[in-house]
Amino acid sequence: MSYLTPAIVTQGAVRRLPRLALLLLCIAYVIPGFVGREPWKYADITSFGYMLELARGATDWLSPQMLGLAPEVDALLPYWLGAWAVQIAPSWMAPDFAARIPFGLLLTLALSSTWYGTYCLARTPEAQPVAFAFGGEASPTDYARALADGGLLAFIACLGLAQLSHETSPALAQLCFSALIFSALAALSHRPLASAVIGSIGLSGLALSGAPSIAVLLGIGGSLIHLLDRSTAADITSHKYKRAAGIALVTLCVAAMSTALELWRWRIELPQANWIEWRSLGRLFLWFTWPAWPLALWTLWQWRRQLIRGDIPSLHLSIPLWFTAVAISATLTTASADRSLLMSLPALAALAAFSLPTLKRSVAALVDWFTLIFFSGCAFIIWIIWLAMQTGVPARPAANVARLAPGFEPSFSLSLFIIALAATSAWAWLVMWRVGRHRAAIWKSLVLPAGGATLCWLLLMTLWLPLLDFARSNAPLVWRTMVVMKHQPPCVVAHGLNRSQIAAFTFHGKLVMKPTDLGNTCPWLIVDKDALATLPTVIKSADWVSHSAIRHPADRNEDLLIYQRVISSEP
To answer: In terms of pTM, does the model score above 0.90?
Structure first.
């Protein structure tokens, strides 16, 4: 049977990427962002606030709340994971670090699932390269492993992955479980039992992470794709009907579980018909999924004959396409567009990997040169601004930092400096290796994008970590407020504070927050400036006197008003 494959790959082109180098790259990408930083606003500290409430037993596990507010993302499992980690962590471990540990494992699992899903798709008969008349074509195992390495590199290289994949938020859990479903559907023909277990975990986890509708859509689509699969492997095993029925059954069980736990929330927000919103979405798609999206489009063009051959596309195209389509649809119909688009990255990375056997030398060179210039420039800027923060030279970057983050005091950490210097040296070596003469490997075009993304993320989380903690954390705002309130009042009334601020005052200030509708006797009242107009409707103005106005030092839009209770002189 002819599969109309455009891939012409020799055995020499699928030489193995050194496992140690790939492992070190993954470690360098995963660990920074989970270690040594403060909880950041907004989603990061907000999710952590609900985890703390659960760990302390202050709210119901099936309906978590914080100061009477339910989470914006109707998830359960991510908050459970963080709460369990806080509960079992030793006393010497900071609770915010303990809560990040399971999320670091979730990111690691997402990386592994992307690699394995791409590997299984590359093993399908339709994805194989052209067989040469006298031999010498790539062996199926080596070919699949090389494409899987390329898929993992493409996944790491995606610019939108870095920050969201290092937050303790439901978005990371959704990414992980969608990647698990992706790998399970890709491996279902080869390892049906293990894939069934992994797929069940993925579908259940995705539903419990706030995306039951997406879980059901992925399950239904996966069932139909395997039902209509006409590959040789499907014909030989004659089990495709059982596989499709199994996926459908698991999906039905997940839908029933979501109904029983009341997880369904329909919050569809269609994009408005105006140029500004569509331009914003276009920019998001452009940078968030770079460099996977142009390579994925190249894959669809080069493998187009398998897309239009008259029946359902091959598994290595249909499964990633379905996952990408569902994620893009969610991006266009939900308020949190970037967090919905995050779930498309494993599938887009897999599609990008299948461009590698067909990538022309000129296109590969263009990718290399653009990546080299872009990431080297970003690393240079990070170093220059760090040097300006430490020495005041160059003067303009130092002045910009002082203007954007007034009150920030730079600090020097020898260990972080050594890590950043080692990462920069590794990047220089990688560039020299890439431009040098060596045997061709199909994954080589994605080495610089993945290495550059890892380098810049690591530099940000080492050299700029104090500045990022100052600007992106609520801690400076809490500390200023604590000084005004004489450090540790017994309780504080809150009005108009968002979930991020409530969690920050609870964690950083160790304050007992009370809503305004309770007849409490707390000595202080914190009011968000935007909620000042509604304040007279919930308190007695005669009981309070305005004391101070406090602004986040790095955020002009975050202003708090502090009121002190009037002490009555009556007996």
So the answer is: yes
